[in-house]
Amino acid sequence: MTDKIQIAHGGGGRLSSQLIDDQIVSRFGDGPLKGLPDAASLPGINGRIIYSTDSYVVQPIEFPGGNIGNLAIHGTVNDISVAGGKPLWISLSLIIEEGFEMSTFRKVLDTIKSSAEECGVKVVTGDTKVVAKGQCDKIFINTSGIGEAFSEFTLNKTNIKPGDKIIVNGTVGDHGMAVLTAREGINIINGPESDTASVHRLVESAREFGGHVKFMRDPTRGGVATVLNEIVENNNFGIKLKETELPVSPGTHSISEILGIDPLALACEGRMLLVCSPEVSEKILQKWKKFPEGKKAKVIGTATEDRGMVLLEAVTGGTRLVDVPLGELLPRIC
Amino acid sequence: MMKYIDDYKNPGAARKITENINTLAEKLPAAKRNFSIMEVCGSHTMAIARYGIRELLPENISLISGPGCPVCVTDAGYIDTAVELSRNGITIATFGDMINVPGSDTSLGKCRSEGADIHICYSPLSALELAEKNPDREVVFLAIGFETTIAPLMALLETAKSKNIKNLSIMTAFKLVPPALEALTSDPELKVDSFLCPAHVSAIIGERPYQLFVKKHKIPCVIASFEPLDILYGIEGILEQVVSNKAFVDNRYKRVVKQEGNTTAQHFMDKYLVPYDASWRGIGIIPRSGLKLKNEFDEYNTEKRFNIEVKPGKPNPACRCGDVLKGKIKPSECPLFRRTCNPFHPVGPCMVSSEGSCAAFFKYVK
Amino acid sequence: MCLAVPMKIIQINDDNTGIVAADDASYKVSLSLIKDPVVEEFVIVHAGYAIEKLDEEEANTRIDLFRELAEVNSEMVKQ
Q1: Residue A125, strand partner residues
Q2: The domain that contains C66 carries what CATH number?
């Protein structure tokens, strides 16, 4: 076995089938993927189907707390989960750059396998392509997922009313900060770990509160600030957060202060926001706290009458706007 | 819990100091009933907006944002020159703050998308590493900043010299705070009753420059840091002076700012730099308000090294950043604010820099 | 204009650089602007450079005063 991916690994010949057999089938070939059909044939499901797709191009591909493989599974699993469904099947499409280290490739695949197992989803179909050096950066992954909708949920943000509570399942911004500090040029030696994780169990545990749960979303790119602004946009309510209630890990907090970055603008990959009526918020918290991924769950804010506005009550007692972040996060000196 | 940061965010103490401020504001003498405080420093501007401090203050106390954002006061022509260098294949290293600042026609961010070699550095040390790793490339560091940033950059030159690095130069647009205070106070159109003086500029220069200033103008000056309690405590200090009819330099950031400042840093600055009459974007020339490299260090001076000259840029004439920087108008009073000028399409520098007054207003103020 | 944070020196290298830490995060900085840096001391860090030492005694005195203020305040709220 050569120690680097070559163009021929994607050429459809002997090296191709060797790579697929050794790396893919050995890990995922025990279900519908067995025998490598071009399309998976799956049993029918009862309820509505939830279908989602996402591409993963994170740089660097390895970061404290995980790698691109975690994201490829957790991202799609979480998208299905927060849409109110149980994730079942995943497709896995890999675009690999010529020269990519075989050892890292194996590590990413191992991560995909273990993450999928933890989430109870099966990789049922896939594809592998190799492109010439420079045409992609190490590895890009696309996953699509199919899930079955839970009948209990009737999610719709227009159902949100002033007084409803906003819950998050843990500290915010750790993934974004882990990736940022893993990049070159910042000199952070020891930063926070990514929060990458699946939230499917949390969604399942909130099923019994049915119509009291109004909205769920995973705050990935753009962070909590972006999701909250999307929630209030064109709606008859606003949201007010309390700075003193925001869970931020010590590492993310320190580096946010050093680099002048707002944790609310940083991506999370294992967090979800849930908006519910006030009478069930404490009950949901109690349920969530039993899971490691919900241990630090907290009510961070309340829906208000200030339509279209996300506000934050600062530690001083003064309030400010929470705006949608611009896009590229630039560490600032001033 | 971040030591010596979160300790200064205590909500209970914030409430108490706010109460004191309100009590003091009622006691202000009739002639100073409507009292203005200018925060010179952009980090103050940012923190005031981030912690909603403006709305905690009584109506007769107004906070005016000053020209303390180095990105905002850098002339558009400087960006134009950096753009030209990058288009000529020179590697540009810069603080992230500069990347989206509009020059006369384009920004460095846009040049980067077109393929220019532009690196964002949190620390100038990364520029040095970049130069070391690529000895065949010319690396230019965009050296903007006030005293706080000037000192590290001079330490960087010292290191570059000792490592005999020949392919790194700096394009300076250094500005000094005390001459700006002087210019703002002498401006007849502007009514500034007191100054909240910057934290980390003061860490470098110490208390003395302000003492000379206060002696001349009899205006209260309080040095304060950037945490919410520091700012409130600073404002309280200013009002205490007014109520007791005094004007002096009150250092309320003693945990860091020494009376004489950081003499090591001052030594580096004196060694490499000389003052000159610098042009501030939107304000104009302020006597002896800039620092440039001495002639003997021409090899580190980008302009000398490439035989180029930064010419004044052509900023958008409708942009009122100049009046915002001088504290004459609030960002929301500019006709472009929120309409044609926003963080996604900034017209002026005050909207770009995250601590620019317009950006802080746009981002945080309801 | 100058974002800077207090961090504790945890290591000093021969080349005037050092490692500073705050909570879980640690960070490589230049100490060339600091006269006689000592491990365990707090410094203010700006753009990868320590720019001044922090006087812990002074800092703590102020923190205590603020804390007392907060307590006075909370007692008043209770009454």
Answers
A1: A91
A2: 2.30.30.140
